User: What shape does this take?
Amino acid sequence: MEILNFKFSAKNKGKAKGRAHVGVVGSGDLEVLLEPLDASSAQVRIRTSVPGFSEQWKAVLDRFFMKYDGAVAIEINDAGATPGVVSLRLAQAVEASEQ
Amino acid sequence: MIRTNLPFANPHDLLELKSPDSIQALAGAPAWVYESLLACPYVVVRRQLASGTGIAVGVRGEARNQRWAGIVSPDRVKSMVSPFELRAGTIVKPERLEAIPALQHLVALEKEWCSLDQRWGPGGSIGFELASTFPAATPLSDLDIVLFAPVPFDHDYAHSLLVSVRQIAACIDVLVETPACAFSLSEYADNQGRPVLLRCPDKPRMAVVPWHVADAPHLEDSLLTEMETPG
Assistant: This one.
């Protein structure tokens, strides 16, 4: 188990309307918990069962926050998801948080 | 039980290679890949379209972060076995059964699901160990189950399956395989009317009815960035 923390600048405080919980902790998948944050940043905390992929996580999150500017706290419980699955789950969490 | 002809290889199938160097482009792989294949010449078929006639496979190392994606030519495969052909009750040694809770859970599930309509079996480290006899599982291994569902089933049925699994152990993870993709049984059972994540050979997508991949709506594409997936 490895824990990773990332912080991104994010100006849009009202972007997320509420909490969102998507995904499942199963092999090759992940769970994403997203909630609004009263700050000018976004925080991401990842617990992953597969250590040693910090750079890949950063690359996925960099791309995500290039297009998403919501001030949110994101918690991820990962069981070895591919970057494609991670991106899809993040998009799903954003969509759920805006409803 | 072990087939030696190779009509089709599906995700989760385990292939025994003719030799440790049967994998293509092995020269560019990390050193542990050859060492792993030397210790146990088995690979698992990946959910990826391989180029030409090659089969996309994954090599397991000892550590969780040691997984290597390769291609193998069908003529380098000695034998092949699918998860639904693997059972712990008949194969596993008593000392392994005692040491590995996930194997005990599998034996319990074999009793519970002995007359299930769908074909099913163990994937992950448990499937690998049963196919190869190599001790790949550890006391901390989860039990990954693959359930083959060519015919759609509804949320109520999914929920009943999930209940029977949960009463054995919470750490059993069931992946449902359709002819086109795969999805999590628990996500489908708990999300009536909402989309679930489908793992398809090209890329993951979301759909309310997992068997209707062609109708799958795309989530905001602007938020998605296609990346190479290391598997």
